[in-house]
Amino acid sequence: MSANVDHNERPDYDQEIQAIADYVLDYRIHSEEAWDTARYCLMDTLGCGLLALRFPECTKHLGPLVAGTLVPHGARVPGTPHRLDPVKAAWDIGCAIRWLDYNDTWLAAEWGHPSDNLGAILAVADHLSQQRAAQGGEPLTMKDVLDAMIRAHEIQGVLALENSFNRVGLDHVVLVKVASTAVAAKMMGADREQLLSAISHAWVDGQSLRTYRHAPNAGSRKSWAAGDATSRAVRLADIALRGEMGIPGALTAEQWGFYDVSFSKTNKDQKVKADKERKFRFQRDYGSYVMENILFKLSFPAEFHAQTACEAAVTLHSQVKDRLDQIDRIELTTHDSAIRIISKQGALANPADRDHCLQYMVAVPLIFGELTAEHYEDDFHKSHPFIDTLRDKMEVQEDKQYSADYHDPGKRSIANAIRIVFKDGTHTDKVVVEYPIGHRRRREEGTPVLESKFRRHLLTSFPRGRTERILELCRDRDELEAIPVNEFMDMLAL
Fold it and tell me: How many beta carbons lie within 10 A of that of residue 20, not counting itself?
């Protein structure tokens, strides 16, 4: 046979793709902790999306692509009057959820925000439920939504445990797209072949470059990237449900597959990886681990690696508020991931730049005793030049133990410490915070804070009476799980 031909024997689907499909189709979720945490995750995620509606830079992206479009059984976007096709609805919901960087976080080899997937889940579930109800069928229930959330969290999070996409220059929303594609296709009624096809297309897609999260190009795309990923997921699921063939070797195909094209080089020095490193590694099988261990941003709308630093800064505020002009230097001790993605010098160009700057997120609570979404806005920054003065006084160093504990599966800490040294040589104690209040190790302490956060965010869109009805429903697991999705979304629509 000539050497100038390809061996054209169509392979089986990659095992990594099959594992996701089989998990989505066959795994039964028995963890009571996962079910309970998913309910809290739903509350928190919806609240973050509602709060984002206060910001015109977010709302300008929402609504139909063609003004006046009417969609039969259109999916609702919470806190708005929009009724959209599920692809655009997924975009809108995902965009709002993610806009303020206030929703949950997963920190591992790769980072990410698994609740981003709720954009696809809610859009598909609401549309299907309205459609089924109109046809005399049974709508999906909110238990189906919670089930999809647990699975999407697990797919995204398990893939992130041992596989760093940022180190090959890709953005973590690739994992949102893969997870959302899988659960959306399942909700839409996909069989195994259709599910395999949908997932394969998610991997074959060109993936987002991570550059929009990093200096000097950080910008607002990071705030709508989740919407982009969830909408694409719904579209790919729909394509597969129409019978479109998949790409079985999407990951492993020599030369043309994801591993060789997008996972083969380190992005810092552009070195080619060894063959054994050009494939995903797995720490554990898919189950419910990620939802059980998810991290909530309960105190601050800030990139999660800075959450504990912000808490330390708030603690120090009372000691330094009357001596701010006497500060000589601010010693920040942190872990390697924080140094890699949020430690910055120089001008900060926009809110997205500021909420990914460790020094900015420490300076604001040192000065004001709190950190809110409004503190990132251009006008606020311009009105308080002393923020940048304090940034210039900060010295950042890594504590190797903090970095080790960050990666330790038994700890998964996100430690930061701050010490303030004054011009007269005196100094504060070193304030160390290992675990943020939204961490599993502080779950009991964090639950009432989460509910309070949800209530505050509901009140930005709804009157007090409706807010309390929604809150009470979400507090009652049995009642929440039983309610049809379309009726739940009725409560959140304007």
Answer: 28
